[in-house]
Specification:
The chain is an alpha+beta fold. The protein contains 2 helices and 4 strands. It has helices at residues 35-52, 76-91; strands spanning 2-5, 9-15, 21-26, 62-68. Helix 1 (35-52) crosses helix 2 (76-91). It is globular and about 40 Å long. The relative contact order is 0.27.
Length: 106
Protein backbone atom coordinates (compact mmCIF):
# COMPACT_ATOMS: atom_id res chain seq x y z
CA UNK A 1 0.00 0.00 0.00
CA UNK A 2 1.45 3.30 -1.10
CA UNK A 3 0.32 6.60 0.47
CA UNK A 4 0.03 9.56 -1.91
CA UNK A 5 -0.55 13.12 -0.75
CA UNK A 6 -1.73 16.56 -1.79
CA UNK A 7 -2.31 19.53 0.49
CA UNK A 8 -5.70 18.41 1.83
CA UNK A 9 -6.28 14.92 0.44
CA UNK A 10 -4.40 11.71 1.10
CA UNK A 11 -4.95 8.40 -0.67
CA UNK A 12 -3.67 4.98 0.36
CA UNK A 13 -3.44 2.94 -2.82
CA UNK A 14 -2.56 -0.63 -3.72
CA UNK A 15 -2.25 -1.31 -7.46
CA UNK A 16 -3.29 -4.68 -8.87
CA UNK A 17 -3.23 -5.58 -12.56
CA UNK A 18 -6.54 -7.41 -12.95
CA UNK A 19 -8.85 -5.63 -10.51
CA UNK A 20 -11.22 -2.79 -11.30
CA UNK A 21 -10.61 0.43 -9.40
CA UNK A 22 -12.32 0.22 -6.01
CA UNK A 23 -12.33 3.30 -3.81
CA UNK A 24 -13.44 4.28 -0.32
CA UNK A 25 -13.79 7.80 1.09
CA UNK A 26 -13.28 9.17 4.60
CA UNK A 27 -13.43 12.44 6.53
CA UNK A 28 -12.10 12.31 10.10
CA UNK A 29 -14.46 12.89 13.00
CA UNK A 30 -11.61 14.67 14.78
CA UNK A 31 -11.76 17.56 12.28
CA UNK A 32 -15.49 17.50 11.45
CA UNK A 33 -17.74 16.80 14.42
CA UNK A 34 -21.03 16.97 12.50
CA UNK A 35 -21.95 13.95 10.37
CA UNK A 36 -23.52 16.32 7.83
CA UNK A 37 -20.10 17.88 7.19
CA UNK A 38 -18.34 14.51 6.92
CA UNK A 39 -20.97 13.24 4.49
CA UNK A 40 -20.66 16.37 2.36
CA UNK A 41 -16.89 15.94 2.10
CA UNK A 42 -17.32 12.30 1.07
CA UNK A 43 -19.89 13.36 -1.56
CA UNK A 44 -17.46 15.97 -2.90
CA UNK A 45 -14.67 13.38 -3.11
CA UNK A 46 -16.94 10.93 -4.96
CA UNK A 47 -18.09 13.63 -7.37
CA UNK A 48 -14.52 14.75 -8.05
CA UNK A 49 -13.49 11.16 -8.86
CA UNK A 50 -16.55 10.73 -11.10
CA UNK A 51 -15.65 13.89 -13.04
CA UNK A 52 -11.90 13.35 -13.26
CA UNK A 53 -11.59 9.59 -13.90
CA UNK A 54 -12.80 9.74 -17.54
CA UNK A 55 -10.23 12.50 -18.22
CA UNK A 56 -7.27 10.32 -17.14
CA UNK A 57 -5.13 8.97 -19.98
CA UNK A 58 -4.34 5.77 -18.06
CA UNK A 59 -6.90 4.44 -15.60
CA UNK A 60 -5.48 3.13 -12.32
CA UNK A 61 -6.49 -0.35 -11.19
CA UNK A 62 -6.54 -1.61 -7.62
CA UNK A 63 -7.83 -0.49 -4.26
CA UNK A 64 -7.65 2.98 -2.73
CA UNK A 65 -8.95 5.07 0.13
CA UNK A 66 -9.27 8.84 -0.13
CA UNK A 67 -8.98 10.68 3.19
CA UNK A 68 -9.70 14.40 3.45
CA UNK A 69 -7.12 16.00 5.76
CA UNK A 70 -8.13 19.69 5.69
CA UNK A 71 -9.58 21.58 8.64
CA UNK A 72 -12.29 23.52 6.77
CA UNK A 73 -15.11 22.45 4.47
CA UNK A 74 -13.75 22.42 0.89
CA UNK A 75 -15.24 23.62 -2.37
CA UNK A 76 -15.70 21.17 -5.25
CA UNK A 77 -13.05 22.86 -7.42
CA UNK A 78 -10.42 22.54 -4.68
CA UNK A 79 -11.21 18.84 -4.16
CA UNK A 80 -11.33 18.21 -7.90
CA UNK A 81 -7.82 19.59 -8.43
CA UNK A 82 -6.43 17.42 -5.64
CA UNK A 83 -8.21 14.30 -6.89
CA UNK A 84 -7.05 14.88 -10.48
CA UNK A 85 -3.44 15.13 -9.29
CA UNK A 86 -3.77 11.98 -7.15
CA UNK A 87 -5.41 9.96 -9.95
CA UNK A 88 -2.48 10.80 -12.25
CA UNK A 89 -0.08 9.66 -9.51
CA UNK A 90 -2.11 6.49 -8.90
CA UNK A 91 -1.87 5.53 -12.58
CA UNK A 92 1.94 5.51 -12.33
CA UNK A 93 2.13 3.29 -9.23
CA UNK A 94 3.55 -0.12 -10.19
CA UNK A 95 1.48 -3.20 -9.41
CA UNK A 96 2.20 -5.02 -6.17
CA UNK A 97 4.36 -8.11 -6.65
CA UNK A 98 2.76 -11.44 -5.79
CA UNK A 99 3.66 -12.56 -2.32
CA UNK A 100 3.15 -16.22 -3.21
CA UNK A 101 0.55 -18.38 -1.46
CA UNK A 102 -0.79 -17.00 1.78
CA UNK A 103 -0.33 -18.83 5.01
CA UNK A 104 -2.66 -21.82 5.14
CA UNK A 105 -3.04 -21.95 1.34
CA UNK A 106 -1.05 -24.39 -0.74
Amino acid sequence: IKPLFTKNVRVHFSATPEEELQLAYSAPKRNFKRAVDRNRIKRLLREAVRLELPLCDVHPTGFGMFIYQGKALPQLQEVRLSVAHLLRKMATVPCSPDQGPKQGEE
